[in-house]
Amino acid sequence: MIAALDKGQFWSQIDWVLLDMDGTLLDKYFDDYFWEILVPQKYAEKYGISVKKAQKELLNYYRQEEGTLNWTDLDFWSQKFDLDIPALKEQIRHLISIHPYVEDFLQFLKKRKKKVALVTNAHYKSLELKMKKTRLSPYFDRIICAFDIGLPKEKVAFWLKLQKELGFNPQKTAFIDDSEPPLLAAQQAGIKYLFFKSQSSSQLPPKIPLNGFKAIQSFNELM
Ligand SMILES: [Mg+2]
Description:
It is a single chain. By secondary structure, this protein is α/β, with parallel strands linked by helices. The chain is built from 10 helices and 6 strands, in the order H-E-H-H-H-H-H-E-H-E-H-H-E-H-E-E. It has 2 domains: about 5-25 and about 100-220, 3-Layer(aba) Sandwich (Rossmann fold), CATH 3.40.50.1000; about 30-95, no CATH class. The protein has helices at about 5-10, 30-45, 50-65, 75-80, 85-90, 100-110, 125-135, 145-150, 155-165, 180-190, and strands at about 15-20, 115-120, 140-145, 175, 195, 215. The two termini are about 15 Å apart. Magnesium ion binds near residues 20, 22, 24, 177 and 179.
């Protein structure tokens, strides 16, 4: 879909590039495996129920917190399930991996002197673990966690506060995410260039955007 764009001209219009972390830069397989397999296993062991029953129960709990800061708050889930969620994440840190072409893309942006921010709903403890494992943090001018703003990316007010914080011109800003609700909120806040990262997990087929956003399967499509 980007093939038709004059890429040189496109990039000349951009000052800031805002990038989501999980599913966009990093393989969401880690998160899916964590919440859908590992946590239910540990929960089932702890409460003496089947893994299947645990998965069903947990899915209900997850759904109740979707689109809120609790959803990514590891301390919230540790308390709720009486499990050490950060320690469990640490156990499977070998599954944390960077999507293809991400580092090339970050270098590409650096060469063109674009301002780059990582903008994530992830909790501080997840962010720290993932940056330690992937060593991507030097590529970012800013790393913004939704907990710093006090709102999740699904809220329009998040983007208005972020704009004040970073001082970007929304007309000269691009934002890329593998989830549509944050893209819709950013759009309402006036951010002009929005891309849906369709391949969030290496283990799942690319998703089709439902709200008319331009989709990219991989970052090589933007270079
Ligand atoms: Mg994501």
